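Hey, I'm writing a tutorial for new members on how sequence and structure tokens pair up, and I'd like a real worked example in the thread rather than a made-up one. If someone can provide the structure for the chain below, I'll link this post from the tutorial.
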Amino acid sequence: MGLADTSVLLKIALGSTLAGILFHLIGLATPYWTSQTITLGSLDFSYNSGLWRGCSAGRCGSITSSPSWMEATQAFAILGFLAGLAAIVLAVLYVFLEQLRKDIIYIIASLGNLVAAGCIFLAVVIFGSKITTGLSWSFGLSIVGMIFHGVAGVLMGVNRFQNKPQ
């Protein structure tokens, strides 16, 4: 089969899955889920934080003790990344290996995208419910990754019913 023989919807879904993984990975790894600047007199102090590290005055350090809501955010964000990674691996194997061109592989890859979108959704909802001001670009990139995974899962489902893979 190969990529040349693959339907347009599946190609778009593969691209969307890859984009979802990349956007979420950047959002997951960077310390800008929240960013704030505090002015005290004539001095400005800026602070930014991600899921793993916090930075202030040009110095960054690991977040050592996290509240339970932060640990839940971290867990769902990691689960979302792993589900997206599994989805892209299975979809690529489905496209390029004849032996793995089975319905179950395709369905699991499609569900992997939807699970990734769901886990990332839970991570951003938990984080956003606790940190209501100063949300920053890393948080936004994870949301974009979630959207790409959701689109990929839906496109793979639509493709399955239009083209009925083997």
